Amino acid sequence: MQIKIDEDLILLGLKGKEKEEILSQMADKLFQCGYVKDSYKSAVIAREKVFATGLPTASYGVAIPHTDIVHVNEPTICMARFEQAVDFVIMGEETETISVKLAFMMAMKEQHAQLGVLQKLMAILQDQTALAYLAEEKNKRDIKSFMLDKLGIEEK
Amino acid sequence: MMDRQKIVLVACGTGIATSTVVGQKVETLLAANHVNAKVIQCKITEVGSYEEQADLLVTTTILSRAYKIPVVKAVNYLTNINPGKIDQEILDALK
After folding, report:
1. Which of A1, A56, A104, A111 gives 20 to 30 Å between its CA and that of A75?
2. Counting runs of H as helices and runs of E as strands, what totals does chain A give?
3. Looking at the partner chain, which of B20, B44, B75 has a beta carbon nearest the beta carbon of A118?
4. Integer Cα distance of B76 and A17 in angstroms
């Protein structure tokens, strides 16, 4: 199943002081738009506590929260830019945190089919020009086109 | 006689996202270095069922216990910060 990029899932200036507030709002949006089941929210919050997803990049911290495929209806990625940076624990670390400004909440449906998109998403994290664009751009439609292009997704 | 094929476990929290990306990197690395090894992708909680026959665990998560096999942490494969160090650790562990 092809991953969709939905303008309604591009959240700019998302408010929240704690990562749970951020994750909760992103998961609610995914649920409202029908991409995930109602069980996704608690699952993604619980998983972030055990398996943190904060990643340091050359520009700023980026988180890639996600959870098991059983909670997902249709694969997509919800992007949120935070009003203010929020601390996330770094992936693979117990307590060390990173100040995160951007999150890609992934709703994944199959194990291997999305390899190409995942690899390209990781490439964005290594692309300072792309990160600078995503930190500033105000037009959601433009962000959507940018993401489709960067992820190599052709909209049907 | 050929060496026994080695088994490399690649694990993350869900077994779907970061382990997919890291698994691909490991497969490419092993092929480029002519290492006879098979990659098995799994959740970190499933490692126990493969541990006996595996030679190496490559993971992006925290380690909740000690393992009988060598462990290489591979988060930097995702951020591309000094990936050469991980390459070397994996190759050394499979010598």
Report:
1. A56
2. 5, 5
3. B20
4. 27
Token duo for residue A155: 């909209």
> How far from A148 is each of A54, A77, A153, CA to CA, in Å?
23, 11, 5
Q: Nearest residue of A to residue B58 by CA position?
A: A92
- Do the beta carbons of residue A44 and residue A105 sit within 8 Å? yes
Question: Among the options B7, B11, B12, B42, which is catalytic?
Answer: B12
Cβ–Cβ below 8 Å for A125 and B14: no
Q: Write the pLDDT tens digit of every residue in B40-80.
A: 999 999 999 999 999 999 999 998 899 999 999 999 999 99
* pLDDT < 50 positions in chain A: none
What are the backbone dihedrals phi and psi of residue A83, each rounded to the nearest 5 degrees, phi first?
-65, -40
User: How far away is chain B from the Cα of A154, in angstroms, using its nearest Cα?
Assistant: 21
Domain coordinates in residue numbering, chain A: 7-151
Question: pLDDT value at position B2?
Answer: 60
Answer whether B79 sits within 8 Å of A64, measured CB to CB. no
Strand, helix or coil for residue B61: coil
Rounded to two decimals, what is the model's pTM? 0.93
Interface pTM, i.e. ipTM: 0.87
Which CATH code is given to the segment(s) A7-151?
Answer: 3.40.930.10
Q: Residue B36 is part of a domain; what is its CATH number?
A: 3.40.50.2300
